[in-house]
Amino acid sequence: MVDGERLTVADWETVAPKGAQQGPVEVFFRPDEVAFAPADGAGLAGEVKAVAQRGPDVRIECVIEGQLFELEAHSPTLPPGVAPGLSIRVKPMRPRVYPV
User: Fold this and answer.
1) What are 83-99's pLDDT values in tens digits?
2) What mean pLDDT comes out for the span 28-35?
3) What are the helix and strand counts (H, E) for the chain?
4) What is d(CA 30, CA 23) in angstroms, rounded to the nearest whole number?
5) Measured between alpha carbons, how far is residue 27 from residues 10, 75, 93, 95 in Å?
6) Where are the domains of the chain?
7) Pick the residue with more confidence: 51 or 80?
8) Which of 52, 64, 66 is nearest to 92 (CA)?
9) Whether domain 2-99 has CATH 1.10.290.10
10) What angle do CA 66, 73, 71 make, to 5 degrees?
11) Which pTM was predicted?
12) Beta-carbon neighbour count of residue 55 at 10 Å?
């Protein structure tokens, strides 16, 4: 939901992308354009389902709001102890929004 200059997705709120249409929106973000927050911090709550090392990158499959996501991260940006079953918080760094 975009309301004024704010974007709200589940229990996470951030600045809406510039020029975003007001009202209900679908939110998209690239798998490698996320920041991880502490489990009790701000962000979209998720649960890790699988982790795979791919060279310097790590792919994380997680469920957020009932949907399966595949995220990409580099070792220094990973949440500590990332493994299946871990609760995480994800903050899309450059979300794109489209009217519903």
Assistant:
1) 999 999 999 999 999 99
2) 94
3) 0, 10
4) 22
5) 11, 26, 12, 6
6) 2-99
7) 51
8) 64
9) no
10) 25
11) 0.86
12) 6
